[in-house]
Amino acid sequence: MRLLFVSPLIVLSACAHSSAGDIDNAQLARSLDALRAQVAAQAQQIETLQGRIDVMTAANVAQTAGTSRNMRDLEVVKLTPAPVRAEAEEEPVMLEITGEGDRLQVVKMPPAPRARAATKVAASPTNAAPVKADPLDGPFADALDAYRNGRTEEAFERFSNLMKKSPKAEKASAALYWMGESRFDDQRYDEAVVQYKRLVDAYPSSSKAPEALLKMGISFEKLKDSARARDAFQRLVDEHPDSAVAELARARPGIRGGRSK
Known about the structure:
By secondary structure, this protein is mainly alpha-helical. 59% of the residues lie in helices and 2% in strands. Among the domains are: 14-61; 137-250, Tetratricopeptide repeat domain (Serine Threonine Protein Phosphatase 5, Tetratricopeptide repeat, Alpha Horseshoe). Strands 1-2 form a two-stranded antiparallel sheet. The longest helix is centred in the first third of the chain and has 66 residues, at 8-73. The termini are far apart.
């Protein structure tokens, strides 16, 4: 009967090779996961930047078209200066002196010099009340700075606090817009829609209303809700037909309304 002898060194070597292979595979998997996360983050940034480029491109196209249209409508008007009215010459005062003898010579006396009109000097407003600064300027600037530096969550909270303190202030509509933008950049499109809708419903005449409607429509597109997206784009064309971003809405299929004149 033969006995097989296996060296312990061979067994240990095989185990060592197996463990090293498992470690290499785990490190490779972690590296792949990290690369996938970086690619996803870059794709999100590219998508956000592309949305901003679309808005800026539409605004530039509309502004260029409006400038060209206004230049065509200009007329050359020849201005004729008004005739200068000469001051009426005053006749000299005539004095005729008579006496018992021969008729004396007529004496001509020039008129008295005209008195110049007094020039009114406006009093300087030494006691004018100083212009009061808007107390919201500082908090608004801080919130906007946070947004522009990528701190979207901080920006959202700052704008939200500003809204709670002064919901009827002039900067309220802008605060709502940037709250929506903060959520849009974070791809939280359903929350972005809420802020955009608050803006257009409460401040329909705000300068930010057209952009809010456009971003609302884009958010619905991201959420695969084509019906609501079309409603937002149509509302933009109906309520703000001459706005710079209305051209982007008109480019969507199913949107009614001609170009602004």
